[in-house]
Amino acid sequence: MNSRLPRLPLILLAAALLLLGGLWALRSMNPPVPAGNLAGASIGGPFTLVDGDGRTVTSATFDGRYRLMYFGYTFCPDVCPVDTAKLAAGYKAFETAEPKRAAQVQPMFVTVDPARDTPAVVKAFAAAFHPRLLGLSGSPEQVAAALKTFRVYANKVPGSAPDAYLVDHLAVFYLFGPKGEPIAFQVGKEATPETVAAMLKTYVR
After folding, report:
1. Per-residue model confidence as pLDDT tens digits over 160-198
2. 20 to 30 Å CA-CA from 68: which of 57, 129, 140, 202?
3. Which cysteines are joined by disulfide bonds (predicted)?
4. DSSP secondary-structure letter at 54?
5. Could you tell me the CATH number of the domain that includes residue 61?
């Protein structure tokens, strides 16, 4: 069963609208940043996952780059597509205003549902929002270890069929530095493309 395809036009529409909204909002590039400071927090660290082409990636793969991370799943009916669109729109707006600084940032979508979100699935999902958004999956063990490292809660909620379950999870944007150090976060439901871009403007040097 491929239940993702009927939602794809809606996902793309959400992404397009949020991209336009983010670009408009960043005319001044001076919005408030409703972000929590993570400096010194015990969060993040080494991880091993798999990219959309089946290649193993680790935390060391991104040394020298900031990491803008969101944990979600592609079968999510509402929150994850909207949050991913916010992330992509905020990053796109920052990229347009500050291309050299934006090139130092690697945006990532990490699945919390490796059983359904194969590397190919997360690659296609991420590419629908921004060409630089990297979709990451892995074995159940690899994903579980990453969730523990980044303190992301995720719990399967049974649905009407074995493959129709939902996943209750922490919806948050994380920003980590070039050495993987924690910098800041924004709660998904409170974030906008404007605030995501402002967070990047504030912390990416």
Report:
1. 888 889 999 999 999 999 999 999 999 988 999 999 999
2. 140
3. 76-80
4. S
5. 3.40.30.10
